[in-house]
Amino acid sequence: MTETPxxxxxxxxxxxGREHALAWALAAxxxxxxxxxAPGNPGIFDYAVPANLDTADHPAVVAFCRxxxxxLVVIGPEAPLVAGLADxxxxxxxxxxxxxxxxxxxxxxxxxxxDLCAEFHxxxxxxxxxxxxxxxxxxxxxxxxxxxxKADGLAAGKGVVIAADVxxxxxxxxxxxxxxxxxxxxxxxxxEFLDGEEAxxxxxxxxDTAIAFGAAQDHKRVGDGDTGPNTGGMGAYSPAPVxxxxxxxxxxxxxxxxxxxxxxxxxxxxxxxxxxxxMITAKGPQLIEYNVRFGDPECQxxxxxxxxxxxxxxxxxxxxxxADAEISFSSDAALTVVMAAEGYPGTPxxxxxxxxxxxxxxxxxxxIFHAGTVHDGERILAxxxxxLNVTAHASSVAEAQARAYAAVDLIRWPEGFCRRDIGxxxxxxxxxxR
Length: 434
Ligand code: AMP
Ligand code: GLY
Prior knowledge:
The chain has 434 residues and is α+β, with helices and mostly antiparallel strands. Helices cover 31% and strands 29% of the residues. Bound molecules: adenosine monophosphate and glycine (GLY).
């Protein structure tokens, strides 16, 4: 029996390029009713009405959802999930895409995830958890180098040091316990260095069922040729050539399925999207870390390739009926180039004006997602580190790359910059015919 689609009113939480891409995909749904966003951004407000909410005020979010008859709340970023927004919405009887606070510990605590891996035999690097300097330093004795030192909690991607030798590892341990990452560093995880090619892998989970939802590769370093400091991600493409059908099947079986089963067994089922940061090693896929939300900018390329309606998929996750969902992706490749403001990943310059967005957006196969912009009347100003995600799809990564950079070159924003080599690894593979 097929259900008659009824319109669903949606509230989207978040303000980045990831949420603009989700808003763009949701807006294409024939099932979308009224659409609200908080905090939102100028790109998101092309489709959604500003909800004017403080998303940290959970009772206010619940009251808004009741007043507007919201049928689905989609939570984009990790911070509200770790803060328990999904719990409070579910307790009020609302359908939510995003895990409860207890399940969000998969991202909120690296030690939590490592212990889960140990308990359920999920492949990951050997590790130790420490709350004091002396024990942490003692663990280094006899370990092979490099070794990885991580702040346990949320550190906006900055709490990881790959230490070449014991001295560097000890310095990283000291920095953590001296408060370099605030409360996130009050516990330290020390981990075996994994060698291989990284991939971002996504699986939707409704607490019980898990379904693969695409893979991507991003570029974490700020500079061309993967040089310079780490960032939140300077660009991404999908599919990830390293994630063959066989590797996806293995990842689902060895990593995702035991995670979902383990979380259910512990009484904290995971409902939302599991983002596994993988290292594809000579031994197979190993888990580097989990995130409990879509990647940013990986989401942008997934949404460009998704060929089924996003709204019923997210609703199926929220309602625990993922097995009924229809999920398909185009065989096209998608690629996104992040345009960032001068100064990023340090302090970005704000308030500079961006021109040429409409012309760039009009190119075939191109969508421009706003990540850190603000309206000033009719003008669009930069208002963050990562500011725009210039995204394109085409039949090959090389063609998607050419389209994205053609659009980048039409954007007039002298105070912005981007990497010129996003997708280099996949393009080289395509050229080599592999
Ligand atoms: P994370 O914040 O945990 O994603 O770590 C940031 C980056 O550090 C990852 O994307 C990897 O490139 C690298 N990294 C983290 N843990 C490891 C590991 N055990 N072995 C090798 N590289 C790692
Ligand atoms: N692009 C990596 C992340 O969203 O964490």
